[in-house]
């Protein structure tokens, strides 16, 4: 969804003037109404206002990802620690679906990526600025870590009881009362490494394909209902494809909480479990989201912002800068 912002010079409180442009403000999920490139916020009386002007997009991604993990990990914690008395697998699917929906609402300022793989696919296929990729990825990772730490703090007493003591912290595959799975994903015991990768690749591809479909107004498009539609996308992925690896589909959602679980005492098994599974939800979502987005653009999308809809399927965009660089170097010689 793209919205036109045409309000200018409105006073909002003492010493605050908001200037916006009439340019189109776009985002990966299509729910953003502005960006730092199109909106100038002046706070002459407050230093924090000036600082916030520069950090509001990373902060948006931070809090959006934190909300995502709070609801997702919180649902897993409640089901696990209550021995299934306070919910089941469907509760977990609901929790992650709600986490994504509310995280998207919370991070609309920045475009609601809340996933480094979504940001990468947007850079490759939607002209999202590459300079923002590392900033967004770091903010998302920190948001996931913060969300996991909050969930641990809230459920620490219940974890002590479930594990059998405050000094005991175990990982799935090494204990029948393991709680590390509350914070990050672990594969089913029967999964091969190839199967692990394909499961995460497939789920990530579906996610990105549907994100592009939901924001494509030349298709049906979801418009302002995009966050709600994403709830059903995540719920469906969890209900249909989540059993084998836990459908991490997000480095920030998995690696961030995994790192927190290692820091709070779950030990090196968080890295070795599942035949060193930890790298799969780091790598597979990047390939999956890019592939899913490319499939949508290749067969369904007609917008000129996708490299697929340019000469040579976008290869000219890649080759031309290289040619220019080579020509410049020859000239100087």
Automatic annotation (TrEMBL):
The chain crosses the membrane at residues 62-81, 93-114, 135-155, 197-214, 226-249, 276-296. Pfam families: MIP (PF00230). Keywords: Membrane, Repeat, Transmembrane, Transmembrane helix, Transport. The keyword Transmembrane applies. It comes from the Eukaryota. SUPFAM superfamilies: Aquaporin-like. One of its GO terms (molecular function) is glycerol channel activity. It is a multi-pass membrane protein. It is found in: Membrane. It catalyses: glycerol(in) = glycerol(out); H2O(in) = H2O(out). One of its GO terms (cellular component) is plasma membrane. PROSITE patterns: MIP. InterPro entries: Aquaporin-like, MIP, MIP/Aquaporin, MIP_CS. PANTHER family: AQUAPORIN OR AQUAGLYCEROPORIN RELATED, AQUAPORIN-9. Belongs to the MIP/aquaporin (TC 1.A.8) family. This is Aquaporin-like protein.
